[in-house]
Amino acid sequence: MTNPVHVEPKRVGLVGVGIIADTHLAVLAERPDVELDFTVDPRAVGPVVFRGATPPHYGGLAHALDEHRPDLVVLATPTETHAELAAMALLRSTARVLVEKPLVHDLVGLAMLRELDGKADVRARVFTAHHFAFSPEVDWAAELLATHPDWGPVTAITSAFYDPYVLRGPEAFSSYVSSWTDSGVNQLSMLTRFVDLTELTSLRQADGGASAWCTVGFRSRGEAGSARLLSSWLTGSSSKESSLVLGRSGVEVWIDHTAMTGFAARGDELLAAFGNDGRTPRKVAHYRPLYASLLSDRPDPVLGFDAAATITAIHHAVPEAR
Ligand SMILES: NC(=O)c1ccc[n+]([C@@H]2O[C@H](COP(=O)([O-])OP(=O)(O)OC[C@H]3O[C@@H](n4cnc5c(N)ncnc54)[C@H](O)[C@@H]3O)[C@@H](O)[C@H]2O)c1
């Protein structure tokens, strides 16, 4: 009988102990292949308890990296800090870096990370938590379309993402910048499961950045199509839905990202429907498969640097005046 091979757990450093950090911690705690090495936050945060213990906590990433040799650094900090902290993690450690979405808040940050590629193997080490691409209803709909080439190309998409951030006031802008910065990247990364995005064709921001309306071109099964994306913080509750129209066949796929449900219909015929057992909180349902993929031998390309660079370029393109 052969002894099972002992694999050392991966040491994870968590940077930023705010709202989304709770989901990272919950999902990481489920995984026997990881241990929490340290946490970082300049704010006075309560002790982070992970599997009954409290790992060392630091006020800055530089100090933590002087003391630890993590395998993975997770950046769950305000969006405008991502590029700088990712560069620090790349240059001061050998760890892979999982950056919360969006990878960067502007094209300068993307160029800075690209320039580091010669020094720090950015393309092999930087991953972006495009978590909406892993949501169960997205997975279901992508699989459904893949098994039905007879339905033809996706010809039009409409997606509306609402978050109740109006209640958080200026704090929402300092954590997430704007609704387009925050939700736009979720919408774009989610759409990469269905179509090949080509360009941002229009963008109009409103309500001081708390709302946005944009159109994006895409290709599906060799044909061009267009997506309309609305995002807004002017609400008291979260609500996120997308509809995919396959105009040649008359099929429509409706996905509700809040309830994690979906259905496909053609005329008055229901073609397929998707629900869930109601037991898994939405963010855990996203991050569980995301971490499973990240920590596997072959992380999904949607997590990789090239996907983030493509999404960032579209996200930050200034559409030509039409
Ligand atoms: N809240 C969500 O539902 C959600 C979901 C997915 C992704 N995200 C992304 O995660 C990121 C964080 O969002 P959040 O909602 O957790 O924000 P948050 O403001 O609740 O938390 C951010 C934390 O980072 C800390 N921080 C600030 N600067 C730091 C630094 N230099 N080093 C270490 N820690 C630092 C802050 O003190 C705070 O505790 C954002 O980029 C956001 O787009 C958030």
Q: What are the low-pLDDT stretches, counting only 5+ consecutive residues below 50?
A: none
**Proportion in helices:** 25-40%
Per DSSP E runs of 2 or more residues, the count of β-strands stands at 14
* Main sheet properties: 8 strands, mixed
- Please identify which CATH superfamily of the largest domain we are dealing with: NAD(P)-binding Rossmann-like Domain
Going across the major beta sheet, what is the strand order? Answer: 8-9-10-7-11-12-13-14
Proportion of residues in extended strands: 25-35%
- State the separation between the terminal residues, measured CA to CA: 71 Å
- What would you call the shape? globular
- Radius of gyration over alpha carbons? 20 Å
Label the structural class: alpha/beta
- Ions, cofactors and other bound molecules: nicotinamide-adenine-dinucleotide
What do we call the CATH topology of the largest domain?
A: Rossmann fold
Itemize the secondary structure elements and their pairings.
Layout: E1 10-15, H1 19-30, E2 34-40, E3 57-58, H2 61-67, E4 72-75, H3 82-92, E5 96-100, H4 107-115, H5 117-120, H6 122-125, E6 126-129, H7 136-146, E7 156-162, H8 170-176, H9 179-191, E8 196-206, E9 211-220, E10 223-232, E11 239-246, E12 251-256, E13 261-266, E14 269-274, H10 282-294, H11 305-315
Parallel strand pairs: 1-2, 1-4, 2-3, 4-5, 5-6, 7-10
Antiparallel strand pairs: 7-11, 8-9, 9-10, 11-12, 12-13, 13-14
Helix pairs in contact: 1-10, 2-3, 3-4, 9-11
